[in-house]
Design brief:
With 318 residues, this protein is of the alpha/beta class. The protein contains eleven helices and twelve strands. The chain binds beta-D-glucopyranose.
């Protein structure tokens, strides 16, 4: 009899540990702790470092638990699996930055059925049940990037584009904004758009190939966070810093170093730290039942050149 009791107790332990018991389970915390989940596109990208820090800071301020869960590398299928698993834990709110908006819509709808508030953060999911969007206005940011690129290229020449993804809406919107902005500069020609898979190594190898194939390339433009550092590394290895201009999104440590070395000319910084803070603040108030003040929050971007880099870094986190 005693053995049977022990066996049942052990089995119950396994059952709860596997997350089958429902409720807001959280690693390390009590069952009732309010848990929020952030679903970035990947974990291995330098862009997400500040985003995670912003989440932690806001969670501390609000006295809640928050987790940052994603596939190691950008992967739409794995992201959905992680999203589904998060729902099974019945969290108080979820923020998702979708690798591909189409793939997450069904899970967002399921969250609504479970009364779990979901917002899009960093990249929008239109025509879905998300309650709001917190992040960059990517079309406007793409246009702002076009200005920086044109200025850096003295308004003429050939540019190759490196884009982390063509499924993520933020990348597509940035490209649209960039192209729209470049309409003002007819002497700038986009010679190609390469997909890099949201990794520094992917961007570096695409840029290396481009530099070899097109010796007269004047500039490389990076659409997502790993692209400009990857492009600049290739430019540096080719001994072309300052000859082939590099402009692109996000200020990450590698980009800062390469800008200081003269291998990156302009960076469009989003506000990943503040963006995540605001997203968590919004989820927290939605969970309390507050009414949404805004369905879309544009967190803004800043253009950083070598001459305002120090000031920009002093003002961090953004
Ligand atoms: C984007 C993210 C993306 C990251 C890394 C950022 O510019 O906002 O959505 O995952 O770059 O590629």
């Amino acid at each position: 009899m005693k053995r049977l009791v022990i066996l049942v107790a052990v089995m119950m332990g396994v059952f709860v540990a596997a997350g089958c018991g429902g409720g807001a389970l959280s690693s390390g915390g009590g069952e009732d702790e309010e848990l929020y989940v952030f679903l970035p596109k990947s974990l291995d990208n330098p862009y997400w470092v500040d985003a995670r820090e912003g989440m932690k800071a806001e969670a501390k301020k609000l006295g809640v638990k928050a987790e940052f869960l994603g596939p190691q590398q950008a992967d739409a299928g794995k992201q959905v699996e992680i999203f589904e698993n998060a729902l099974n834990r019945n969290p108080a709110g979820i923020a998702v930055s979708a690798n591909d908006p189409e793939t997450v819509k069904a899970t967002i709808a399921r969250a609504k059925e479970q009364d779990i508030p979901v917002i899009a953060w960093d990249s929008e999911v239109p025509d879905s049940e998300v309650l709001a969007y917190v992040g960059t206005d990517n079309v406007a940011a793409g246009e702002q990037a076009a200005e920086a690129l044109a200025k850096t290229m003295n308004e003429e020449g050939k540019v190759g584009i490196l884009a982390g993804s063509v499924t993520a809406l933020n990348a597509r919107q940035r490209l649209d904004g960039l192209k729209k902005g470049l309409e003002e500069y007819p002497d700038i020609e986009i010679v190609t758009t390469e997909i890099t898979g949201e990794s520094v190594s992917g961007a570096t190898s695409k840029a290396e190939n481009l530099l070899q194939a097109q010796s007269d390339l004047d500039a490389l433009f990076g659409v997502t966070g790993a692209d400009a550092p990857g492009a600049a590394l290739a430019v540096k290895q080719a001994g072309k810093c300052g000859d082939t201009q590099v402009v692109g999104f996000d200020v990450v440590p590698q980009g800062v170093e390469l800008m200081k070395e003269g291998c990156v000319q302009a960076l469009i910084s989003q506000k990943p730290y503040g963006m995540t803070r605001q997203a968590l603040e919004m989820l927290h108030s939605l969970n309390k039942g507050d009414e949404l003040k805004q369905k879309s929050v544009d967190t803004g971007v800043v253009t950083v050149y070598e001459d305002n880099l120090d000031q920009f870094l002093k003002d961090a986190p953004h």
